[in-house]
Amino acid sequence: MQPSAHPRHLALAATATAALAAAAAGVWVLRRFDPNAAGSPLPACVFHSFTGLYCPGCGMTRALHALVHGDIAQMLAMNALLPVAMLTLPLIVLHGLGYRLPLPRRAVAAMVDGKLWLITLGAFWVLRNLPWPPFSWLAPG
Amino acid sequence: MNQPITTAASPYPTYLAWSITITVLGACFCCLIGAAPGIVAIVFGNQVNTKFNAGDDAGARKASENAKIWCWVGTALVAISLLLNILSFFVNGMSFMSEDFLQQLQQAQSR
């Protein structure tokens, strides 16, 4: 092993530890409290309470609650961005730390392109607020 | 995994995962103001690779630093708004809480 590779592995270990700790805390909270219940202590979306519109993160807590309880369909119904983020964010972090991903180069280039994400987040934000069927499926619920 | 980096990516981090996360969380916790720093951070992070590939090393480093700064601004905003959310729950929350939930909460605490 090259000495120059060490900081990268340390950074990965630190990131993975922090992510696992956060995930464990999240699982504990979501097994204990139900964000679907009235008066749940889990915070609601401020953007939605002010504007009545959905933001890209709306339904994220309920989607995570569904995931923790093994309900994949309900997770997708609540926030379709969650599985996308859960798959791509770790890969982006690995790429950012300097690891080579076992994916086609063009796929990696597209994934770490900021423009793609700006368009994805913006489009998701607008489309899930449209009231017509193909788009309204993106709204939480 | 120990191979040296062979892609032509810039040596300056783009903080993309961080900026995407704070954009989504910021949008949820404190409206458009919360999403703005994250979007700015994604734009600067994007400039890192663009400028590096164009041969502008100093520009790429500057963009990376800017992306980091905006990531921290967004993170601070998310942290503050999360605290405000929790605070408002304790100030206002109990009044509209259902009887069922209070029982659930007591059970959770006694466990």
TrEMBL record, chain B:
The keyword Plastid does not apply. It comes from the Bacteria. It is found in: Membrane. InterPro entries: CD225/Dispanin_fam. Keywords: Membrane, Transmembrane, Transmembrane helix. Its main location: membrane. The chain crosses the membrane at residues 15-44, 69-91. This is Transmembrane protein. It comes from Lysobacter capsici AZ78.
